[in-house]
Amino acid sequence: MQDEGDEARSTAIQKAFGILEALLRSDEPSTLVDLAAAVAMPKASVHRLLNQMEMVGIVRRDLSGRAYLPGPRWVQLASDTLVAIGRQPPIREIMRALVAKVTESCNLAVLQGSEIVYVERVECEWPLRMQLQAGSRVPVHCTSSGKLLLAMMEAEKRKRFVSSLKLDRYTPNTIVDPNDLLAECEQICKEGISINREEYHRGLIGVAVPVRGAGGNVAAALAIHAPIFRMSIEGARAMIPHLADAAEQIAKEAGLSADQPDAEGD
How far apart are CA 239 and CA 102, in angstroms? Predict the structure, then answer.
């Protein structure tokens, strides 16, 4: 049985998470008035909780000092959670089934800082392949997963993010002009997929699709890549239905999707 102290602490946690959820749903920094209205709480109570959350880095203030954003600690926790989820055995099995269909390597990736991290990876059986381990980090601007996750950001955030990147050239096809990269992101938004056209390694192409949460937000990218002599860009596009199906299965298995099976006996 919960004592009164436990109940009070639980209530405080629930209120704090309600505020954080309201903050994360907003496309712009949220003021105290905005958040109090969103969670139907007195401004004094919301302000007290915001101060506590700010002290531990869960929220932070914007440059004006009058509105709030997710803090660095929350961003890191969210990223670490996706990494932990991506390494669960059932998700690896979904990826193995995808590799069996497309006969090329696949990876599940998230954005951490200014890099892409492969949280899980399954290699194909071909003797000639690019071998990378789960945990490997690759650039954002010249990989299919990286460009996809960039493209799925809110437009202003994407513009700021791109302006902060060091756009190193890896091949003649690497996009190194910020305006060209932003234009590429616009095209990715329209198509809902991202193509790597030998932009990171010569002779290597890739295609990525989003892994979406219940609200449509993109939590990760699922991608395959292959040598150009084994798979053309058109061939990679033909694999998109398999990728999309696997991405949907991963979202459900990870608890990201609203379409969850009922518990037995419900």
Answer: 7
User: On the CB side of 92, how many CA atoms lie within 13 Å of its CA?
Assistant: 12
How confident is residue 80, by pLDDT bands cut at 50, 70 and 90? low
Residue 218's nearest CA partner among 159, 146, 114 is: 146
β-pairing, 204-212 vs 218-227, is antiparallel
Tokens of 110: 């998230």
Whole-number Å distance between alpha carbons of 132 and 74: 28
| CA-based R_g, the chain, Å | 21
Query: Closest Cα partner for 246 from 122, 81, 111, 129?
Result: 122
The predicted-structure confidence for 192-209, as pLDDT tens digits, reads as follows 999 999 999 999 999 999
| Residue 73 neighbours by CB under 8 Å, 6+ apart | 56, 57, 58
The answer to whether 162 and 184 are in contact (CB under 8 A) is: no
Q: How many Å apart are CA 250 and CA 183, to the nearest integer?
A: 29
Distance CA 23, CA 234 (A): 41
Number of residues in the chain:
266
Residue type, position 2, single letter:
Q
Residues 6 or more apart in contact with residue 26 via CB below 8 angstroms: 34
Q: Which helix (H) or strand (E) holds 23?
A: helix 4-25
Average pLDDT, the chain: 83
Question: Percentage helix, strand, coil, to 5, in the chain?
Answer: 45, 20, 35
3-state secondary structure of 259: coil
* Contact (CB, 8 A) for 219 and 110: yes
Alpha carbons 196 and 103: distance in angstroms, whole number:
18
